[in-house]
Amino acid sequence: PNRGPDCFSHWGIAREISALLGTKMKPEAFKLKEQKTEAREFVSLKVKSKKDCLRYTARVITGIKVGPSPKWIRDRLKVLGLKPINNVVDIANYVMLETGQPLHAFDLDKVSGQKIIVRRAKKGEGIITLDNEKYRLEKDILVIADSKHPLAIAGIKGGKKAEIKKDTRLIVLESANFNPSLIRLGSKKIDLKTDASWRFEHGLDLGLTEIGLNRAAFLIN
Length: 221
Known about the structure:
By secondary structure, the protein is an alpha+beta fold. Helix content is 31%, strand content 22%.
């Protein structure tokens, strides 16, 4: 249970083995194609407290075509106990298992005001998560919100409001690093443990946010 950051991913295990054998770890090389347009032209970001969210990185990906993932991704997810959903969600899950960095994608057309705000929940605020469960949030629970409502319980579970569906064409892909204690507390408060919360509450390398984000963006493209 205390080896989450280095042994809860395929890259982490490979790094551990390379250290034991005195060999060099060689992750799969990839080159990301980028447009000149910056993400800030599509969406703005505000982090209320840097103590709550240590790092937040994101990419906007246009021209998305949501559908089934390639067979090799579906097969690998099934072997690891995850149910394939669609190419965007599957790639986010695949990269989490590969690198150890949890990610989440929002349908940007469903994000009110084109604003992403990382903040504590307001008293009495609620959210319906991707599995159609309703949660009443408390003030000490961190959320990812737009200008009106929570979009996700930060580091734990995404919400239905900006869910990726077949008609999604524009996404904002999130890769962040949250305060481990805050995620652990929030998970306990609402009695919800997830693959993402398990990793966040054990602490992650800040450098993983950009690595995981770029890897997922590459596979989506």
